[in-house]
Each structure stands twice: as structure tokens, then as C-alpha cells.
Amino acid sequence: MRGSEAPRRNVVVAITGASGAVFGVRVLELLRGLPDVTTHLVVSKAGMLTLRQECDLAVDEVKRLADVVHRSGEIGATIASGSFPVEAMLVAPCSIKTLSAIATGYTDDLVARAADVCLKEGRPLLLMVRETPLHLGHLRSMTAAAEAGAIIAPPVPAFYQRPESLADLVDHTARRALARVGLRELAAPAWDGDVTGGRQASPGRRQPGFVETTHRNGSLNAITTEKV
Question: Any binding-site annotation on 18?
């Protein structure tokens, strides 16, 4: 019976103009695997540019990954109201402009407004702040956002899981972010205390002393190795 169905979980994903649009794309892909989740996507104008430049993706392609799409200027959207139930919100990636707006409560677009609603309602809000080096103003904005309740989670790659590709790094980071806001069913495998997982590295596996060098050709898996 319809009345006995569990309520769906609304998750907001915002993609802004910082480098790293692929993180937002991967978050959307992972969330599509959860049958009880409704994803709400907001892409800023700068985020649209970054999607094209970094991922060779048209905005319409990314929109198809979401259940509901809102315009960045749509201040009257459902996710702009605290009365609309939201499980969590991720800004992936989060530009310094967006971080600053959230930290100061300057809600001039839907990304900042939806984030502000999460903070005032005590809901998980994760900001994948993507900038480096960081000057004092950046750090103060991150502190202010954290003090208001936001989770500051720069997309810093983890290498202990011995990634085979750039796609592995993106996936692991996206899964950690989703787990942090309570979507534990999408968490990356837990650390088991053994870097090799109890196995010897295969003969063809890259060994320490080599680094990956990515080439911009639209593929996350296009990787070569260089000796260091």
C-alpha cells in the first residue's frame, strides 16, 4: 500500500564554479543507486562552465542524473524553505564565492539559500571547498561556516587505498563525503589496517616511486606513469 511506503529522502547536490566539477557528477551517479533518495540539483552559472571545461559534459547531461533540477536563481524552490524535508546537502565542489556567501548568510542565489536553510534547520551541509593555497580570508570563511554548523571537506585524495586510476580517487572522495552526511550505505570500504589488504602487489601493479600524470582528453582513466 502506498500509505505504508517509507518517506523518500531528499538530498541536495550543488555544483559551483570551483575546479572539481567531477566530484558533483560522481555524487549524483552514486545517489542514483539508492531507490529511496530523490536528488535535487542546482548548478551555478560558473559551475556550468566548469562542467564543460573539465568534464566535457553538457549541462543537460548532468541534469539527467538528478531527479529534480532547480535554477540557481529560483529562490522560490522547495529546497529554499525549511518546511521542505532535506536529508543532507553537498556542495561539490564549493567555490570560495559560495563558501563566503554561506559563511556570511548572503543568500543571493539558490545554492546559498538552500545551504543556509540546512544550517538553520540543523541539517548536514558538506562543503567540498576547492582552493589552494589558502589565504587568511579563505580560512576565516571556512571557520565561520564550520562554526555555523557546516562540514568543511576539501576534496583531498586518499592514497592509502592504492588507487588504480583518477576515477578511483574521485569515487573514494565522493563516497567519503556521502558517508559523512549520513548516507553510510554509499561509504567507501573501511580501512583494515593493512595497505595491501593482506595481499602482495601484483606484478603489473605500480610500485612506490611512480606517480600518475593525467592528460586532458575527457577521460578519467587516461593515465600514464612517470618515474620520480
Answer: yes
